[in-house]
Structures are given as structure tokens and as C-alpha cells.
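Technical appendix A lists one of the benchmark inputs used to test multi-chain prediction within the project. The record comprises two sequence entries:
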Amino acid sequence: MAPLIQCDDLWKIYRVGDVEVQALRGLSLTIEQGEFVAIMGSSGSGKSTLMNILGCLDQPTRGRYRLNGVEVGHLRPDQLADIRNRQIGFVFQSFNLIPRTSALENAQLPLFYRGLSLKEQRAMAAAALQRVGLGGREHHFPTQLSGGQQQRVAIARALVTAPSLLLADEPTGNLDTQSSQEIMSILEGLNREGITVILVTHEIDVAAYAHREIVIKDGQVLSDRATKGRSQTVGV
Amino acid sequence: MPAFIWLTVMTALRILGRNRLRAGLTMLGIVIGVAAVIAMVSIGEGAKRAVQAQIATMGTNVIIIFPGVTSASGVRGSQGTAVTLTVSDALDLKKRVPLLVDTGWARRDVMQIVNGNRNWNGPINGISPSYLTIRDWSFTSGGPFTQADLDSAARVALIGQTIVENLFDPGEEPVGATIRIKNVPFRVIGVLAPKGQSAQGSDQDDVIFIPFSTAERKVFGTSFIGSVGTIFGSTDQVEDLPEAVERIREVLRARHRLQGDQNDDFTIRTQVDIGRVQEGTSQTLTMMLFSIASVSLLVGGIGIMNILLVSVTERTREIGVRMAVGAKRRHIVGQFLIEAMTLSLLGGALGIVLGVVGAKLTTVVAGWPTIISSDVIVIAFFFSLVVGLFFGLYPANKAARLNPIEALRYE
């Protein structure tokens, strides 16, 4: 079976006025199905650019990116949207819930673009909320939920399409320690169910949940090593 | 797709509901535009219908010939003051203009009419027998003159509704009664069916008809024997009117021995001419309405565009999220177009309601007749849809062109 993610010699070059910025400089990376990976690096290291490319929000200037064995570098925007809709779930640092819209409807959002019937959408979204422990809060608005709960709604939104890849960009960056732990446990649980999780973080103790740690510097992989993962040391 | 449209409409309504004041102000242009058009068109249609009905009361395919004006040392009198038309003109026209189905004539004077202790000052018309047919007069009781009445210059009269009201008690039967015109007793033999106002606004029911021969010999006095006030003619088809008018002009010029450069000593009018004046008025009105409507729909449309542009900016992050979870360009375009159309259609619907109410109020308050046609409602609705679509297109495209990465980072 082909690896879930296979990047070969990825380059991303921006042109800001006359200045050329090389965000990625020939980065190569392979991630197998079911891995839990933490990507670390200082700001400006190119990790955000990498995440955008892995999430099919952006395309590399040069190089090859295969997702599930499919080369996505040359796809049109609508095809990329389809891939994001079916294979990728996003979790953002600032939750990015749609304001004044219930938890259920936020979790429904990706299904909205799949043309499913309203009934199916509701049932699937409710199940996803159940899965992140928010059963019974379907009709709460984001403002009525705590930060941790909002992030759980966002995870439900990412999960609802049963993606093969979950991309979490600093998911605990806006949360207190306890909420952070809750969120990380959820991600850990999802990984155990077989979803590949890629996590971007600065925080060592958050990165510790992952089984593999990749450090990016100057648009290249600086180090790539297996870690024990928290579940193996502590056990949940 | 239906689920998408349904949900988008619901979302749009919720967003509008959240900013009720803003949505209301945005729609105002469309509301006012549509309401103005509906109200004005209804009033215009009502007026047009009323005028058409008035013109129809003149008769069918009628041609009216007036005498020319007198001119004493270059000072011209009013129309019809000259005595240039005669009974033999009318008879000759019928013979020499085959397009004319019939010709009739009348001479008119205003006189005192008495019935017992009541009196009234009204127009007396001496008329030829064919006059009543040409002008489409009918009777509510009694009937027209007979040939014998004309031949013997009988003292018989037909009276209009206004005369009945002013000379008789309510419920009193006028037919068979005797009234006095200039002290000459006349027997009423018919009451005319009411016609209402003429296209020029005069009361057509304020009228008394007596035989032409009687008028000439016993009422109007003997000066100008054989001259008439007006000659009437009618054709079979409306299309024949212009040619008939030309032929009449030729015959009359020949009979009156007018040289090539002399002006006509008569004026010819047809129903079509009178209708045309009204049509011109209503066209001017329509053009005015059209420009008012265009301007307010334009302003309303710009209002919608403006508010949508604000909305796109405010919701940049939301658009980014939607793109990230798989919204395609057409989904984003669709969402904002549907929002625009929801706004404009709501505005249009409100405008229609307001316009209809306005038109009804005009009927109640000012007493003007109004006709609300379903056509104008459909057109107004359609136009508000088009306005929403057209002015929504730019903001929707702007939203769909956002870069998802930048949109997600937008503060």
C-alpha cells in the first residue's frame, strides 16, 4: 500500500516585491497511514507552508506531493476542494467556528458541500459531536461554550467526513492546560482508531503525545525521530 | 443541491434577521422602487381604462366635423362660430364618400326648460334620425323619434339622465310628461341611458334631443335655415377612418369652393385622434415611471452590493473555513448570490405589498380608479430578482476569489 503522504523535493517560493522567499527548500517526507506526527519548528521555519500544502490549501512551486498515492500538485481548485472535503480534516488554533451558528450546524458544515440530505447531515454531525463528548450541546452557540468545548466542536467538524488525515495547527495554542490535555486525549483516541494525525506545535508536552517528531528548519527537515508517545508511558 | 440551496436560504435569512436594521435599510431602495411602480402603474392603468371607456361612449368609429371659425377684420372667433356646414353637406357626404356607413347632424343651443315648478338650463340638440345610432345612444325607457315625428316637426323630446334628475321628482315617470322648452310644450317620449363624463370631462347626460326639423322651425328661430352645428359620420372599420377623413375633406372643399391655398372652413376629428392625445399622455407617464423605477432599482441594487461587500469583508474568516472544509468556488458564489437575491426579493415582495396598499388607498382617499394587474406584479418580482443577481455577482465573485490561506489568517 502506498504511504498516505509522500513528498519528494518540495519547494515553495514566494515573491514579495523583488524579494524571493524560499519557504520550502527541497523538503522530502513520507508519512504512513495511522501515524501520529508532531511537526515542530520556529516561526519562519516553513512548517505553516508545509501544513498548507499537506492540507491541499496551497500547492508546491516544485516537487511532488502524493496523497493516498494521488499526485495533487496539478489539480484544479475545485478538485482540491473535493480532496479537502473527503480526505482531510482541519483543526485550527483559533477554532474558526462560524459565529452565531449552533454546534450541530458547525459540525455539519463539510457535509453541506457534499449534497447530502439534511437528515443525513444532522445525524452524522450529531454522531461526531457525541464522539468528542459534546452530546446534548448540539444547539449551543460558540459563545455559550468554553474554549475547550469550542475546539471539540471544531474536531467534530473535522471528523464528520471520516477523513484519513487530521491536520491540527497548534490546536491547544489558545487553551489552558486542562483543556489542552482534554483535546490531546481526543486526538490521541482518534489516532488509535486509525486516523492519521499531524500536529503542529511549539509546546514540548503537547508534542509528546505524538509517536514521531519532525523538526523543520529553513524549509528542510532538520530531524525526524520516533518518540514513545504519551499513551505508552502513561496509559489512558 | 436542493439541500444546499435550502440551507443557504435559511442561513441567509438568519444572517439578515441578525442585522434587521441593516437589512431593512438595504432593502429600502428596492422597496420604494417597486412600491412606486406598482402604485403608479395601477393608477395609470385605472386612468387609462376610464379614458378608454369615456372615448367609447362617443360611439363606434365616429368622425366629427365642426364648422370653422369666424373672422371679423382678422379677429377670429372660437371654434364652431362660423356657419359653414349644412344639412345638404351631410347628405352629399353620405352619397359621395362610400366609406361612410351613415351621416347625421345636430345643432345645439342652451335654453331654459320647465316642468311644472322646476326649471333647468340645458343644451337642446336638434338631431337627424341617424344621430342616435352613430353615437350609440340607448334608452332606459321609451324610444327614439319616428320618421313621422321628423316629417311633421313633432314636438317630442328625448331627455338625458341629468335632465330627469333636475326636472322630475324621484320615482316620477318622465315618459309621457310634457315639458316646456322656450315656452313650447314638448312631450317626452324617451329617457336616454346614462353615458357619464366625456373624454373632455363634460356631462354627456345633461342633454335633450328633439327632431332637427322641430328645432329649426319651432325653437332655434329661422335664421340660418339648413345650417348645422356638427356633422357626424361613422365607418365600418377603425382602419377606414383616416381615408374617410381625407375623402370628406375633398368633398367639403369642393362643395365650399375653397381654392388650393385657402384654409379649410371646417375641422374633422375622429375618435382615434382623441384617443391618441390620451395615449401620448399615458406614454409620457409610463416613461416617467420607468425612469423613477430604474433609478430606485439602481440605487437599491447598489445598496445591496455595498452591504454584501461589507459582509464579505466581515466574514472573510468564515469564507476561509468554508473553503478549507471543501466549499468550491460555485458554493461560495451561490451563497452570496442567494443572500443578495433573498434581500432583493424580500424588498420586492415588501414593495409589492406596499404598492398594492398604496393603490387601494388612492382609490379610497382620492377616489381615483386603480387597476392592479398581475403582470406588473410579476414583472416587479422578476426585476427585483434580476437586481439581486446582477448586484450580487461582484461581491460573490470577490468572496469566491479569496485565497483560503489568507482568508483563514484574516483578523
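Chain B has a mean pLDDT of 85. The CA atoms of residues 58 and 135 of chain B lie 6 Å apart. Comparable benchmark entries are summarised in Table A2.
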